[in-house]
């Protein structure tokens, strides 16, 4: 039964069971309403907007914490991408299909999923409207609106054919993936994590790739110069050309890309350009609804991820963040941070807990180039000094297995940034192999729990020849020893 014009506008709202509504959706219970004027109204306790990691995890954590509440998730993509896996569709994976987030966990948890695009938020009426006319009334709303690629307005030539950004959208990435067959020379503008990872993946495909980064080193925002220099050497040795310390003046071409002109007037020939110059929060609809933004354009939230409206939460790339140590507003966007925020928001939807709060981003990064891994957490040495912390560093250079004659042994370089007065760990960096990811996570735990070098030195660890460094030279403990000696003045 379809009401798309079958009755007059004066007809009142009907509750329907198992009938068809104008939006083409089947209504299965009395909490869902169909308005005969053409509007489809769905009622739910918690509405989550955003189908990426933050939205999905907020919904699942919320449902687990409040199983008696009804949850609806709205996503503008029928299939969501694994964000951190996007660079690997170009080389390691066999295309976009191998990098999809499963929807099954949501439906198995009892969360309803609607595919649609949010167009407005009615805060007073506590409802959201989708592009197809669907309206969803909510008691609590979680905004996980994500981010969109940032393209500087000053960059001349950014609108030319074969200039690409990396959107987290399946259809966009499928088109980009197919188009790469026609390109040989590719310039990647931006030497952050996405730029470096995509460059290495394109290099695997046999492309002639050049990274352009205005900072002195690639990954220079996450690593100090000593480690960043080593990372740059590894990337270059794999065949990627690196231009650092120079920005882009413009992208050259009439209709399509022909090259890139650098600020030093060097020209790089190119068939295609990929812009990885960062992302900006997707906050337009939130701003239009009257939700306040902070000074750098993120939705303002408290440590429970509540906006200024106590019924509306915001998590992930669209939400405000502060640095864990400095308390300054941060523009960091990480899926891991978004997931933490999502869990905290989900647990606090209907009751706050002071022990379930977000105390600031630690900025935990990791990546891999070939069999080399790089990771960082917290403050780098240069940032800590610039912010006014009096620090020492603890450094240890060892191996990740014992004895070092075992096959596939990797170097394990650890650098800790430690407050001189308290001995508390403020940050750390790792250069190693597959163990990098978990080592940098351990450093993150140390920072979040305000661990001191003395606490690390008295920590118990488990080791195994094939899995870890030796107990006599465990890298985090040895780096802490090095820092402790400097604190003592030894």
Please outline what is shown here.
This protein is α/β, with parallel strands linked by helices and 490 residues long. Helices cover 22% and strands 25% of the residues. Helix 1 runs parallel beside helix 7 (335-347).
Word description of this protein:
The protein is of the alpha/beta class. The chain has 3 domains: 44-149 and 278-361, FAD/NAD(P)-binding domain; 163-277, 3-Layer(bba) Sandwich (FAD/NAD(P)-binding domain); 365-488, 2-Layer Sandwich (Enolase-like, domain 1). 22% of the residues lie in helices and 25% in strands. The protein is built from 11 helices and 28 strands. The chain has helices at 53-65, 104-108, 170-179, 193-204, 225-237, 284-288, 335-347, 381-387, 436-448, 453-457, 475-488, and strands spanning 14-15, 32-34, 40-43, 46-49, 71-75, 112-115, 118-122, 127-130, 134-137, 140-143, 147-149, 163-165, 185-189, 208-213, 241-244, 248-252, 259-262, 267-269, 272-275, 279-281, 312-314, 321-322, 329-330, 365-369, 372-378, 391-399, 411-419, 425-432. It has a 6-stranded mixed beta sheet with strand order 1-2-3-9-8-7. Strands 6-5-4-10-21 form a 5-stranded parallel beta sheet, covered by helices on one side. Helix 5 (225-237) links the parallel strand 14 (208-213) and strand 15 (241-244). Helix 1 (53-65) runs parallel beside helix 7 (335-347). The chain starts with 13 loop residues before the first strand and ends with a helix.
